[in-house]
Amino acid sequence: ARRQRQMCIRDSPPIVGLTGGIASGKSSAEAAFRALGVPVLDADQVARQVVAPGSAGLAAVIEAFGADFLTADGQLDRRRMRERVFAHPAERTRLEALTHPLIGEAMDQWCRAQAAAPYAVLSVAILLESRFRARADFILVVDVSEAVQIERLRARDGIDETLARQMLAAQTSRDARRAAAHGLIDNSGSLEALRAQVADWHQQFLTKWRDDDAV
């Protein structure tokens, strides 16, 4: 019966694409879904894995950008790379051309491994700006104002307002995210309020895809 509805990744459960602007609280929403027993994959973790020391991904990045982007212990200097790509959009495109195919392959393998689950969550900060959007059956956006994003980002990363605004500008605008969303989580309130919204979406997803499978 499950084959009767569209799945964006073959042989996987339904995939919820969880996204939101930087510092919107997406990681808190991830944690809430995990607490409910939902399989969750964070693309940031995958992105780190594909450029781990000794990986083909790291070798390709260093060949393209130079050894200056390695730390003393052989890790990718993520802060330096982030500053580079957010200041130079063409460099960001070059980096993504190297890493996104590797990230996508790892995502698809993980999704297929969750085939027995009612649904799974792919958490991707740049879901709407990238090819990863095609992997989502439902797009769920964690939403806050840009002013809150900048305040949280500066506090979290210890950066100035200029870099914070560059990082926001490199992502899809808040209006575009809201327009693309199939559903929203308002994270302007408390953590308890966010968790309550996640719990409500969880029940909606269970009902939605159980009913689809019964068709």
- What's the overall average pLDDT, rounded? 90
Residues in helices, as a percent range: 40-55%
Specify the overall morphology. globular
Extract low-pLDDT stretches: 1-5
Radius of gyration: 18 Å
Account of the protein in words:
This protein has 215 residues and is an alpha/beta fold. It is 53% helix and 11% strand. A five-stranded parallel β-sheet has the order 2-3-1-4-5, with helices on both faces. The protein is globular.
Give a quick set of tags describing it.
215 residues, alpha/beta, 5-stranded parallel β-sheet, globular
In short:
The chain has helices spanning 26-35, 43-49, 56-65, 78-87, 89-113, 146-157, 161-169, 174-180, 191-214, and strands at 15-20, 40-42, 120-123, 138-143, 183-186. With 215 residues, it is of the alpha/beta class.
List the helices and strands and how they pair.
Blueprint: E1 15-20, H1 26-35, E2 40-42, H2 43-49, H3 56-65, H4 78-87, H5 89-113, E3 120-123, E4 138-143, H6 146-157, H7 161-169, H8 174-180, E5 183-186, H9 191-214
Parallel strand pairs: 1-3, 1-4, 2-3, 4-5
